Amino acid sequence: MNLFTRPMRLLTAVVLEETGDAVVKALLKLGVMDFVHLNRLDPSQMEKLSSRPSAINRTLLEDLRHRVEALLRQGHIALPTSQNLDVRRLERPDMELYRSTLDELTASLLSIKEEQKQSNQILMGIEEIRRYIDEDKGEYLDLRVGTIEGDRQSDLAARISSFGGLLESLGEEEKLISLTLRRDVAQVDPLLEKFGWTESSDPALQKKAIGIIRTRLEGERQRALEGRLKSEQAADSIIAAKRDDLFDIWSNLRLNELSDQIKGYFSYTHNTTLFSGWVPADQAETVRQAIMMASDGQCVIEWTEATEVDRAEVPVAITSPKVLKPFQNMVNNYATPEYGTVNPTIFVMVAYLSMFGLMFADLGQGFVLLIAGLLFSRSYKKNPLKSEGMITRNVANLLIYLGLSSMLFGILFGSTFGLELFPALWFPFEAVVAGHAPSGSLVTDVYGILGITIKFGIVIIYAGLILNWINLTRKRAFLTLVLDKNGIVGGLLFGIGLYMGFGFVNSGYHSFPSQRWIAPAVAISLLGLFLRPFIHAFIEAKESGKRPAIGALVMDGVMEWLVDVLEIFTGYLSNTLSFMRVAGLGIAHASLMESFRQLSGLAGGAGGLAIFILGNVLVIVLEGLSAGIQSLRLNYYEFFSRYFTGKGVAYRPVGLTTTSRSRS
Amino acid sequence: MRSRNPVDVYGFINAKLRARIGKMRQDRLVENLLKAPTLVDAVALLRDSPYRQVAEVYDRTGDLQQMELVLLHTEIEMHRLVTKYLEGRPATLVDHLLAKIELDNLKNTIRLWYSSIVRRRPIRFRSEYLFKERILGPINWVGLINATGWEEVQHLLEGTDYQAVIDSFTMQVIEDEGLFVVESALDRAWYVRLMEILNTLSPRDGEVARSIFLVEIDLRNLTTLVRYGRYYQMDGPSVSALLLPWGRVATSKESTHYLAQPPAERDALLLINRFYSGLDEVAVTQKRGSVHSDEPGVLENLKIEEYLAQRRAELYQKILGGDPFTIGLVLAYFFLFKEETATIKATINGKYYGYSEEYIRGVVG
Question: What pTM was computed for the model?
Fold first, then answer.
């Protein structure tokens, strides 16, 4: 894991045009280069370069690939991934052939779906009649028993089936059963008459007919169901049979898309190809060798260090171990850090888990979160195609950490499902909240808990400030390091404020500390803050030789100073007090558990147990969610705002694992 | 009773619906569906959308009308969800919008009944495509589809909101004039009730809702004038009877003049531009290899209806940008949702029959 963003180097290479394709394949296989357009060259040199229109329309490639994906999904086949891509098999796509293969397969598929539709319609007709029989809605049915003239049973059966009805033999005296819907009686009557139907008035036969027709309907239903299922399976198998072809088409289309994407960054002279891109410094040698090999050594490669380029243009890569992915995602969701600054992932992990644990300290409930996280993660691993619900893959992994944190703090506070089953290692949180802290407890009332969280907040804020000072030192922004609200002066003023605040509390809320150094320290700090824009303007003027407008500079300086002072005095205070929410949620958690414990005791027996379990479920879901959100909020607003500018540009290399969205 | 603060009434639903609208726009489902080259591709797009169930039904049955039934179910559920977050008169209005779905279902049921009993065409399995659960009122859908006479239909609809209209028609009238007159009367009754409900809303809600529905009525009347007055060449009094008596169009001099002319000479372009200027040319020439023999006429009509649908879409866009704490946002959401489901229906059907993207766009509007 890098404590800072990964060092980067800018490669600029010239290869012979004839080796261009081989170089593309090599770079695609490595997948570490974040390409840039060659616009840093001298304009006169740029004039000599030309771009080439792409030989393949990338939109067409994408459209065709989406068609392949649609067919595979229709066949319930997992889509190919970057693992299926092999640059050695990259070839010019035969779009016509691909299109006709897909058209053919689609046509066959649609024809099967049409058969499936017909089976479904037969099934629906049978289901309707069956439902009326089952629900005893005989008034909608027209069941008759009788005979017809001549041997025209199959003819009549066909005519009746056109109404969705059935004709069945009763099995004695050539009697037949006709079952249709009463709404069709106006058509059925003349039809039966035409066949010389003679109705039987024997009620026993009618009763028997119902039993026979039920059996027939069940048989017809099974047949239709099987027919429909068979079509569904046929649709799947027709695609499964073409799976390898579809995978090949998909892979070649995707490789061509990526190859075309890389070539889009290429510039050309008469015989050579030029390109440029950022690679992590630790990959530079591998990239150089790959280009050398692909171009048979006929290439020129130049490296530019990131320090020689404007920091804002250098893409930022941060690497963290896989286990820290949930916290890496938290950082990514916020913004990209500046190049060369601290990688916040590990700090976020510590801060987030500490905050969550303080708010949701319970060994038993933490164990539930841990188990839930493990189960969800396992389910996603077992079924990679599973669509993400409310508990996404990332949340599932995060739950494991949250569970562990909650368990650890549960041990420190001696809480298991709200019960004090073992002595607290630190202090009994729930007993303190309930007002009966044992003698000798390190904390005896809720004010003590509030005090702990405020001190915790101070540690977090100072940690943020220190990280900011490290970042500013690395950026060589020494003026800001010293004279900024988040610089050393800001930290000093915050420290003085804390000293005053704690002094006031320690005096029993009677007086503030009055040491002689306080006023001069505050005054010098404020003066430093005031002078910063003027010093900055002076340095800039010295470097550029341009004198700033004095009036505007004074106005801006005064305004900036006023805002900074306001932010320091109110911002630091509110940021510190904001951490009281950690205590608030922890107290709410303990109070809820105490309430459910008492309710459970009052109810007793099975009811009491139900209340206890339901109470725990409610607390795990609601309090867990609330603590998770508040921890995130504290990290984003109180911690990140001290050192994380989010001005970086994310490193997006083009490779086989590049998703179509990530560089669109 | 003191009316509630609009922020209290609409605050929560506003946030919820805006989030849904944002997601709808982000997903670009409608646009992607229209561009899908085949039915298989269109269904694939539904798999990753909130309409996953629709795609699952296709896998199971291969039947587009079954898919439409799932969409109808989704639409009903959406109305119920919104009603749950509202109360009082705004909730009554939303219920009345749900009543339109019930009315459309009733019209479909009666159409099927008409086909079976009056036209004597067996409907077989088609009754299974109808929504048979309760929507608003206790309607015996199964009874209706199995009714063997109009009197039975009337009897089954006794005590419902539709009784008065249904009772005003006899079997003889239906046999002679078809169902169109019954359907028009049912629609008109729905609009009459709508206007009554609008009058009960708070002044701000009433103003917003009226501004929407009066334009809706104008657009509907214009569509009626073009479709029946020009495309189907019906005589003036018959078309006039179909117009809803609200808004600017129904009672305008232009409409009267338009209908007074012989059907072949009626200028739809001129009429529409009088109310919504900007429609340039609608004449379409027959293309070689057209799917339909009367394609130019159909396309002309579609072009006009598409233009009017665009004006409707603009109206709702405007509402979305207006005061968030009125019934306007709810109505705009309904419009967008209906637009989405209508596009899904039109697209899956259009792709099934091999129609072009342009043609489907015309149908969708």
Answer: 0.78
Contact A67 B37 (CB under 8 A): yes
Distance CA B33, CA B67 (A): 15
Q: Is residue B13 part of a domain?
A: no
Residues A441 and A560 both lie in one domain: yes
Instruction: Please tell me if residue B63 touches chain A, with a CB cutoff of 8 Å.
Output: yes
Domain interval for residue A217: 117-235
Kindly provide the ipTM of the predicted complex, given to two decimals.
0.86
Report the domain count for chain B.
Answer: 1
Name chain B contacts of A162, Cβ cutoff 8 Å.
Answer: 122
In a domain, B136, yes or no: yes
pLDDT band per the 50, 70, 90 thresholds, residue B87: confident
Could you tell me if B362 and B353 are in contact, meaning their C-beta atoms sit under 8 angstroms apart?
no
> Min CA distance, B286 vs chain A (Å)?
28
Minimal Cβ distance to B44: which of A70, A110, A187: A70
* List of chain B residues whose C-beta atoms are within 8 Å of the C-beta of residue A239: none
Give the residue on A whose Cα is nearest the Cα of B114.
A183
- Residue of chain A nearest B143, judged by CA positions: A140
Q: Which of A73, A114, A186 sits opposite B120 (nearest CB)?
A: A186
Range of the domain at B159: 86-200
Taking an 8 Å cut-off on Cβ atoms, the answer to whether A187 and B120 are in contact is: yes
Does residue A459 belong to any structural domain of this protein?
yes
Looking at A202, A235, A268, the residue that finishes a domain is A235
With respect to residue A161, please indicate whether it lies within any of the assigned structural domains.
yes
A46 belongs to a structural domain: no
Give the model confidence (pLDDT) of A185-220 as tens digits.
999 999 999 999 998 888 888 888 888 999 999 999
Per-window interface: B 128-157 vs A, CB < 8 A: 128, 142, 145-148
pLDDT at B6: 82
Residue A275 lies in a domain: no
A502 and A631 share one domain = yes
How many folded domains does chain A comprise? 2
Per-residue pLDDT band for A662 (boundaries 50, 70, 90) equals very low
Q: Examine residue B267 and state whether it is found in any structural domain, yes or no.
A: no
CA distance A472 to A593: 46
Task: Give yes or no for residue A232 having a pLDDT over 50.
Answer: yes
Residue closest to A619 by CA, chosen among A581, A589, A595: A589
CA angle A81, A86, A90 (to 5 degrees): 115
Rounded-to-integer distance, Cα A452 and Cα A457, Å: 9
Domain-embedded: residue B94: yes
Phi and psi (nearest 5°) for A55? -75, -20
**Bridge-partner residues for A611, per DSSP?**
none
CA distance A375 to chain B (A): 24
Q: Is the pLDDT score of B295 beyond 60? A: no
- Contact present, A26 and A294 (Cβ < 8 Å): yes
Q: Do A183 and B145 touch (CB under 8 A)?
A: yes
Mean pLDDT of A515-532: 94
